[in-house]
């Protein structure tokens, strides 16, 4: 479970998307041209700080976020198919880490853009989901089941979280991503891609339920919290 270790330690320079691609198509991946790899790994741009493809093609921020949803879906699958308790704990940690980064990056890039372009959009349900999710993420991260009864509870919590997150991502794609596609030109989606990559790269790697989520304050606070999280990660390895 190489990408799991990668997420847990935070030491790798590539990302979940790249790791998943390698595991799903190991031989094909080695033969894929660099441009193709970058198109398939928008979150990977964030780790390296790069914001353009090999041929200088800008990253489409909306496509990058949808691709990252698919990474999250795959991380849920990994938990469901983990064969041992340790593998399940690792899969859960990786899921928590990735969703935490994803949510922070969206709070600072995607949602402010939606408010700007579609000020009438009703975000109450999606913001409520986020608040609940942070609480669940903290539970999943801080709790290691001690026996069969606790595993039943942990599995049920993760299954419930998956249900909420699946619905949330589908709603986000339909009610946030697609409306923005209708109004953003190529320059605007490329700008979003650069901002998304940078925000994902410096995002907190752990859930912070009590932390700020308003875009203006989040832009100031999240990179600092992300730095502290990474220091914690480094000390823990
Ligand atoms: Fe999302």
Automatic annotation (TrEMBL):
Entry protein name? Hemerythrin-like domain-containing protein
Compositional bias of kind Low complexity: 17-34, 43-57
Q: Where is the composition biased (Polar residues)?
A: 1-16
Q: Where is this region: Disordered?
A: 1-58
**Coiled-coil blocks:** none
Give the InterPro entries listed for this entry. Answer: Hemerythrin-like (IPR012312)
Q: Where is the Hemerythrin-like domain?
A: 61-177
**Pfam family, any one:** Hemerythrin
Organism listed in the record:
Volvox carteri f. nagariensis
């Amino acid at each position: 479970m190489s990408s799991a270790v990668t997420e847990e330690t935070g030491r790798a320079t590539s990302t979940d998307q790249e790791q998943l691609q390698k595991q799903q198509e190991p031989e094909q991946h080695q033969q894929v041209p660099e441009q193709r790899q970058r198109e398939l790994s928008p979150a990977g741009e964030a780790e390296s700080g790069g914001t353009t493809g090999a041929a200088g093609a800008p990253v489409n921020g909306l496509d990058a976020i949808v691709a990252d949803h698919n990474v999250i879906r795959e991380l849920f699958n990994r938990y469901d198919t983990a064969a041992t308790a340790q593998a399940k704990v690792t899969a859960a940690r990786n899921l928590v880490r990735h969703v935490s980064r994803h949510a922070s990056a969206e709070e600072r890039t995607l949602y402010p853009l939606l408010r700007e372009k579609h000020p009438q959009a009703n975000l109450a349900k999606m913001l409520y989901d986020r608040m609940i999710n942070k609480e669940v993420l903290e539970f999943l991260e801080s709790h290691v089941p001690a026996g069969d009864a606790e595993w039943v509870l942990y599995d049920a919590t993760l299954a419930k979280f998956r249900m909420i997150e699946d619905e949330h991502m589908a709603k986000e794609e339909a009610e946030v991503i697609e409306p923005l596609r209708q109004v953003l030109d190529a320059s605007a989606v490329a700008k979003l891609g650069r901002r998304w990559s940078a925000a994902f790269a410096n995002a907190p790697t752990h859930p912070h339920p009590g932390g700020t989520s308003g875009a203006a304050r989040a832009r100031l606070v999240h990179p600092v919290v992300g730095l502290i999280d990474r220091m914690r990660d480094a000390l823990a390895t």
